[in-house]
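assembly run, all chains below
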Amino acid sequence: MSARAARLCALGAGGLVALWLLTLNFGALGAVAWRAEGFTALRGADWAAVRFTLVQALWSAGLSVALAIPLSRALARRAFPGRGVLITLMGAPFILPTLVAVLGLLAGFGRGGLVNQGLGSAGFGPVSIYGLHGGVLAHVFYNLPLATRILLQGWASIPAERFRLAASLGFSPWQMFRQLEWPMLRELVPGAALVIFLICLTSFAVALTLGGGPRATTVELAIYQAFRFDYDLGRAALLALVQFGLCAGAAVLAWRVSLPAGLGGGMDRPVQRFDLGRGAWDFALIALAALFLLTPLGMIVVRGIAQVPALPGEVWQAAGRSLMVALGATALTIAMTLALAHAVLALGGARGAALEALGLAALAASSLVVGTGLFVLLLPLTNPRDWALVVTMLVNAGMALPFALRLILPGLREVVATQGRLADTLGLHGLARLRIVPLPRLRRPLGFAAGLTAALSMGDLGVIMLFAEREGATLPMQLYRLMLAYRQADAAGTAVLLLGASLALFWAFDRWGRSRAVA
Amino acid sequence: MLWLEGLEIVQGDFRLAADLTVPKGARVAVIGPSGAGKSTLLGAVAGFVPEARGRIVWNGKAMGAGSPAQRPVSILFQDNNLFPHLTAFQNVGLGLRPSLRLSQDERGQVEAALTRVGLGGLGTRRPAELSGGQQGRVALARVLLRARPLLLLDEPFAALGPALKSDMLRLVAEICAETGATLLMVTHDIADARTIADQTLLVADGRVTGPFATEGLLADPPPALRDYLG
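ok done. output:
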């Protein structure tokens, strides 16, 4: 294969992926609008949903970041046994199936949960986890670790020499903060908050389980209800448009604020500092956060582990289906990411950047909007419900693409920059080039991205809810049904199974990436 | 014969003109101040830098739009001449087959090339497990196998100490003698030019001039070169 043909190939494959992303992110929306045959006017409840969505996302993002600042500062400068494990565990909520997290929070904060038992024995009435504060609590549980990891990297990126210099110049703690830490925070905090805001905007599973009712419905949930319960395509379409507008607005904002990378390394050692007191405050903070983040998970495991062997057959079948969907989505995501990344680099300049932006745009896409669109597109051709698993896989792959692209593109860019010319002089092109040059060097990010995709897809409860019938459920959907039916024991066992499957998938792929990783 | 026929390279504000011939089998040093365009000149011959005007002709055939791999050229850069994740054997094997699917016979050729540069038995090492000099030898073994008639060196040995560097240059001279290759070698070190290059191209003030006989040039340098030599 010649250099020219290889370039055309990269551009062709990237173009196909771009076309598919356009269909997924914009075409689906168009399809909904087209099938709606005129919009049904939004009701008061729908506007309440818009308000609720914005308010909960603002609270969630604000609280997550506000708590993450002191927490990441404490983690950045304190060494203690188990620090590495704790930081690794803080990555877990990101790949944790939402429903499992919700179940964990219910165990901690629900009606019969630990907190209410404590309050009850102290003579106070129970607090409800449902509604706005329940949603915010779940989102903070989910996103506090993400924000902490992003900021932790920021703290790690301040060169240790600067702290040494500041110490030798006799900086006060305030000057230290003002000169060294504040500039980093000013750079990272807006991006971190915006990412979390975006994630919470498209929150579906949390709202489905902890929200609901007229006062705690997100737009995403309202789309589902309009579609599934009322089959009012007009309203679903209009809500989808509103949701798209919200996400696009936030995405445009995100475009102006540089988004943090957030998932990489660089957290192995605490920064050596010279302004440390005894650290009671730091350690109390770390202990509280660990308690908040780890107790719910611990309770899930404790309650459910014994139930796993006794789970009914339908749960195992659902697990098998979810596994297939997760593996399919992973293969698709990796293939699409590689094609897109190569095309971005082959184009270069502004056009490459535009293509990259398209790849990242899915970050702002809502899976319910995309799902509704695909449903409407499939309807004239076939029974969409027969394709529930395929559609779920396709949508999952599209949703994971931005993360995978962010992980893989920088590495590929570096490989091309340092070894592209060498490969050119040797006439390495096409698949042989892919196999010999970038793939071995990108093993790590590839493994990580694949693990992330597989875990996200395994635990995703979104688009499947639009499509699936009684049979053909995925594991998260099966779990949701068990929760609705109050089959507590089975639900607890299923949650452990789901948690285990997600973590195992992530672990296996990540492990593959780390093994034999070279240079 | 290498013929730079009315060649002009333009990169933004930077321009470089050359109109000269280098005889086949010559060993030519390319010297001149930093930023004058020595690497750019080599990049143009290797096919990485497009010519704005003129042609680069080898043995009566214009190189034209040939991609870097299609040109009759082997080039070694300042760094990144080896893939860090491949073994020495694989790095050399790429010179025969980019797919690395080598026949038994070809594997023997790779071993022979490694032995020729003094790395027999070290084929399983990765670049990080080799010294700087050994890394240079791996790259030269690949040059040997590819046996292209033009060898371009863009200071690949600049980071080596003096003794190692002269070892490398001796090896380069031997390889050129064995394969009959024509050598163009960028250098900052006049001693290098004296050691292995009988002729010298001077790159300065937007022009490539020469080739001059190296000894004569250094004995009586033109003003541009005199400024550079100090």
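Chain A touches chain B at residues 2-4, 418-419, 421-422, 424-429, 432-433, 436-437, 440-441, 518-519 (CB under 8 Å).

Confidence is low (pLDDT under 50) at residues 262-267 of chain A.

not gonna interpret more than that til we talk
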